[in-house]
């Protein structure tokens, strides 16, 4: 039977693998979320009820250990940006003496600082957080037990969450841009248009209880963003049972 897991999520570093323009000023927004038995329940109709739990990174411009990077260099990711400890409680199935795996995840948005004001960047950060809360909430509401394979419950639930969250990530850049413009005055907006902050990339990791076998105590969280004009960047992290 599945048990509650104590997990430590830690993103250690960001590497500038390639960069064509000399020096970059990256910053990172992250959102950690979970839909588990502490905040979500399966109803008698086998639907999901409740709200997911969230934790958000701090800061925007200059929120990494090294404010500027060039190709071949790395920077540490501070605890306030990419480290959390969570309890992952399985979901209880009504009528059956059985637990289902809970889901947790992290969304990362990597950006490059240019002419957007600090105030505008934080407005964009707030908009991102609200959008993720809204997206995960809508995924929970849209849960359809008919989409879950009874002979492969764990992987099909993970696939369900991943497939539903992915479309929301595509709308993030434009919604953040709108929030930045609303958070700045007209002169700051004009200055930003000369050289606005750039989106390097967005990525979501999702995992469940089933990703931790009895002998597996650590998962790697890694991703490489390869872009046309902003080079290549790699983020590294882990999830550990504690």
Explain how this protein is built:
The structure is a single chain. The protein has one domain (5-241). The protein starts with a strand and ends with a strand. The strands form 4 sheets. Strands 1, 6, 7, 12 and 13 form a 5-stranded antiparallel beta sheet that branches. The chain has a 4-stranded antiparallel beta sheet with strand order 5-2-10-11, covered by helices on one side. α2 packs antiparallel against α3. A hairpin with a 5-residue loop joins β12 and β13. It has 4 helices and 13 strands. By secondary structure, it is α+β, with helices and mostly antiparallel strands. It has helices spanning 79-82, 118-141, 153-183, 186-194, and strands at residues 5-18, 26-35, 40-42, 48-50, 53-56, 73-76, 83-88, 91-92, 99-100, 103-112, 198-208, 218-226, 232-241. Helix content is 28%, strand content 36%.
Distance between the termini: 19 Å
Biggest beta sheet attributes? 5 strands, antiparallel
How many E strands? 13
Flag low-confidence runs: 184-194
Give the number of helices. 4
What general outline do the C-alpha atoms trace?
A: elongated
Domain tally: 1
Helical proportion? 25-40%
């Amino acid at each position: 039977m599945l048990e509650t897991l104590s997990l430590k999520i830690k993103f250690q570093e960001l590497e500038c693998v390639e960069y064509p323009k000399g020096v970059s000023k990256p910053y990172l927004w992250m959102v950690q979320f979970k839909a588990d038995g502490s905040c979500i329940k399966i109803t008698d109709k086998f639907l999901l009820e409740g709200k997911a739990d969230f934790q958000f990174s701090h800061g925007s411009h200059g929120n990494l250990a090294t404010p500027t990077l060039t190709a071949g260099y790395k920077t540490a990711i501070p605890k306030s940006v990419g480290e959390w400890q969570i309890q992952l409680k399985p979901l209880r199935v009504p009528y059956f003496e059985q637990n289902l795996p809970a889901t947790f995840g992290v969304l990362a948005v990597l950006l490059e600082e240019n002419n957007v004001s600090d105030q505008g960047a934080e407005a964009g950060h707030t908009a991102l957080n609200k959008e993720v809360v809204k997206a995960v909430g809508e995924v929970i509401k849209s849960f359809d037990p008919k989409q879950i394979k009874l002979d492969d419950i764990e992987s099909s639930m993970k696939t369900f969450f991943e497939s539903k969250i992915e479309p929301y990530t595509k709308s993030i850049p434009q919604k953040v841009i709108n929030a930045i413009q609303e958070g700045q005055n007209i002169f700051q907006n004009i200055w930003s248009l000369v050289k606005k902050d750039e989106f390097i990339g967005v990525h979501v990791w999702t995992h469940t209880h089933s990703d931790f076998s009895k002998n597996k105590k650590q998962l790697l969280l890694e991703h490489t963003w390869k872009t046309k004009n902003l080079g290549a960047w790699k983020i590294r992290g882990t999830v550990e049972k504690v």
